[in-house]
Amino acid sequence: MYPDRVVSGMRPTGAMHLGHYHGALKNWIKMQSELPCLFFVADWHALTTHYDDPGVIERSTWDMLVDWLAAGVDPSQATLFIQSRVPEHAELHLLLSMATPLGWLERVPTYKDQIDNLSNKDLATYGFLGYPLLQAADVLIYRASQVPVGDDQVPHIEMMREIARRFNHLYGKEQGFEAKAQDAVKKLGSKRAKLYNELRTDYQQCGKDAALEQAKAMLDDAQSLSMIDRERLFGYLEGSRKLILVEPQVRLTAASRLPGLDGRKMSKSYGNAIALREDRATVTKKVRTMPTDPARVRRSDPGDPAKCPVWQFHAVYSDAATKEWVAKGCSSAGIGCIECKQPVIDAIIKEQEPMHERAQQYLDDPTLVRAIVADGNDAARKLAQETMRDVREAMGLAYN
Ligand code: TRP
Ligand code: SF4
């Protein structure tokens, strides 16, 4: 089978805030040490909604990349790149579009939602309808096994699984597949070839799942097989199709969600965000002026943490003892709100210290980020080109 691989992207929205960090980046940083990861700036995706104002995208792209690095995304572990620098994404998007039913795109829930939300923009465009298909190309082109995203993106991942399945179904039939598969069986050596054929028959004629598993394990062990022959033999076990694109799994971001200062979703446009690299004084001021439970007008009024956005910050930042101190102190008016906020301020400042440090070298020398991304673009492009070679061949486009 194809190797495990993680792919995820973000639209360039400029400087990141703590909502992005807790909602997505922390998860990326965890995954980068576990599996090969590709993280990219989805600049073409930004154009689907900002086609009339593309000037902001460049600046936002670099700002976002500095923040990824500041947060701890490590270019020696993960591949960082920019979508538009790997034009193969566009080629796959085009080829996938040929067989994608319009209904699949119109049904994606974010489509109607976004059109309603961004009613000041004309989003009745071809590009905007195709957003989830471009996203499918972003992931399928790397044959990713896992995609870390928030739950709003789950329908997109489900659709890309359907796209991959449909593609394999339509084009997975290689010319002369049967003969090529039988050649590959011979390359296993006579003992293994015999076992392979027996297990294949057991599975196909008697539906024995254990035989399928055993055959797959044997193929995993067969060192001498080329990648493509291994794929053929996997496909041949179950039928006569070759897996060209891989159906990815969703990897949901762990639910540490940090709301904005006012309790709504954290967003720069709501003015309720703390920037990833906000300076100390501003962090302190922003948290000190956060709204609290409206019932606590005076210091002597008891409060209810459940009605207070500061409590949600404690949920992310504080240990059990601190949380208990808050819960008791708030409901008994034993502590004041300024007092209650101090541990949150301290925790945010502590969390941000290494981010400021890591960012400094990139601010001092902007060519560093350019170099990291140039390397990432090259590495991503190589992988994308491998897949596209197979895709073109499968679709009968490999003539020259
Ligand atoms: N649609 C994603 C978002 O709005 C961004 C994105 C584009 C993405 N391509 C992707 C995420 C591929 C994961 C994989 O957040
Ligand atoms: Fe909110 Fe803390 Fe004030 Fe209670 S004491 S209202 S939890 S800030």
Q: Give the CATH superfamily of the largest domain.
A: HUPs
CATH architecture of the largest domain: 3-Layer(aba) Sandwich
Protein structure class: mainly alpha
The CATH class of the largest domain, by name, is: Alpha Beta
Helix content: 55-70%
User: In percent terms, what proportion of residues is strand?
Assistant: 5-15%
Strand order of the largest sheet: 1-2-3
Number of strands: 5
Ranges where pLDDT stays below 50 over 5 or more residues in a row are: none
What hetero molecules are in the model?
tryptophan, iron/sulfur cluster
Which of globular, elongated, flat, extended, rod-shaped describes the shape? Answer: elongated
Give Rg in angstroms: 26 Å
Question: Key features?
Answer:
400 residues; mainly alpha; Rossmann fold; Tyrosyl-Transfer RNA Synthetase; 3 domains; 3-stranded parallel beta sheet; two-stranded parallel ribbon; 6% strand; elongated; binds tryptophan; binds iron/sulfur cluster; ATP-binding; aminoacyl-trna synthetase
Describe the structure.
The chain contains 18 helices and five strands. It has helices spanning 18-31, 43-50, 55-71, 88-97, 102-107, 109-117, 126-129, 131-140, 154-171, 177-186, 190-206, 209-221, 227-238, 280-288, 309-317, 320-331, 337-364, 367-394; strands at residues 6-10, 37-41, 79-82, 146-149, 249-252. It has a three-stranded parallel beta sheet with strand order 1-2-3. Strands 4-5 form a two-stranded parallel ribbon. The radius of gyration is 26 Å and the shape is elongated. The model has no long low-confidence stretch (mean pLDDT 94). It binds tryptophan and iron/sulfur cluster. Belongs to the class-I aminoacyl-tRNA synthetase family. This is Tryptophan--tRNA ligase. Keywords: Aminoacyl-tRNA synthetase, ATP-binding, Ligase, Nucleotide-binding, Protein biosynthesis.
